[in-house]
Amino acid sequence: MFKLFRQWLDNRVIQRSIITDAQWAQAFYSLPLLSGLTGEEKKQLQKLTILFLHHKVFEGAQGFVITLPMKLLIALQACLPVLKLGLDCYSGWLSVIVYPSGFAPKRTVTDENGVVHYVQSDLAGESWQRGPVILSWDDTEFAGVIDGSNLVIHEFAHKLDMQNGVANGFPPLHANMDAKEWVTAFSTGFEDFQQQCSRGEPIDIDCYAASSPAEFFSVLSEVFFECPHILYKKYPAIYELLRQYYQQDPLTRLG
User: Fold this and answer.
1) Given phi > 0 = left and psi -120 to 50 = alpha, else beta, which region is 187?
2) Is 112 left (phi over 0), alpha (psi -120 to 50) or beta?
3) Kindly report the CA angle at 162 between 226 and 250, in degrees rounded to 5?
4) Which of 116, 105, 115, 25 lies closest to 72, judged by CA?
5) What stretch(es) of the chain map to CATH 1.10.472.150?
6) Tens digit of pLDDT for each residue in 28-38?
């Protein structure tokens, strides 16, 4: 009964959407990343986007004004990874905070000797467990141009990873997936990737992925959706596991 009532509410939200056909067309045109979707997949992505915009609050930092077209660009990219998984994967948090450009939060860090240090790091995006997703608009506006780098997908992949606790590169898997296979493929790939980066070898994947298993998962998710041929060539086993996890095949979709 609850499921039927929820479907009824969702349908009401979708039917009452104020997004025009022209706005949808412009958003899809601005995101070549979505060009390979079928007509049915685009309709489903639109529905998820409408519901995402309904349930999440967008906040502009430092007085930044976020327009509906900006929200559309962010929400479409955020919903692409959960196209087959559903918005429940993004439950338990509310806000998307957008800075006009990069931001540098100040934090305290305690080292192994108990000494407290004050640090300030330049960031383009951030995801907090049970907290907001934070994005820089400068790094978001052209994220969907298919260059293997996508800040929105990166941060929302962290959110998927955090469904079962702290981000560690091991999101909750589907019942038909083998956890041991996931751990083996990602652990082996991560170690290999770290070694290549440390040797300064030319790699078509951002070496930021070598900083932790969580970043490895998020960066490879970016590559999976934007440049799947690179991931398939370098780590075919990981590509196959991400294909099973996201239930999508960008290699076929993008050709």
Assistant:
1) alpha
2) alpha
3) 20
4) 25
5) 1-149
6) 999 999 999 99
C-alpha separations of 214 from 125, 186, 191 in Å: 14, 10, 13
φ, ψ at 133 (rounded to 5°) = -100, 130
> Considering only CA atoms, which of 145, 122, 146, 142 is closest in space to residue 134?
122
Q: Do residues 96 and 140 make contact, with C-beta atoms less than 8 angstroms apart?
A: no
CB hemisphere CA count around 115 (13 angstroms): 3
Compute the mean pLDDT over every residue in the chain, rounded to the nearest whole number: 91
Q: Give burial (CB, 10 Å; 0-12/13-18/19+) of 166.
A: exposed
Give the pLDDT of residue 112: 54
Q: What is the pTM of this model?
A: 0.90
Domain 1-149, second-level architecture? Orthogonal Bundle (1.10)
State whether CATH 3.40.390.10 applies to domain 168-255: yes
Percent of residues in the chain assigned helix, strand, coil, to nearest 5: 55, 10, 35
88 Cβ contact partners less than 8 Å away, ≥ 6 residues apart: none
Residue (of 160, 143, 142) closest to 225 by Cα position = 143
Closest CA relative to residue 153, chosen from 121, 124, 120: 124
For residue range 204-228, what is the model confidence (pLDDT) as tens digits? 999 999 999 999 999 999 999 999 9
CATH 3.40.390.10 in the chain, residue ranges: 168-255
- The proportion of the chain whose per-residue pLDDT surpasses 90, expressed as a percent, equals 78
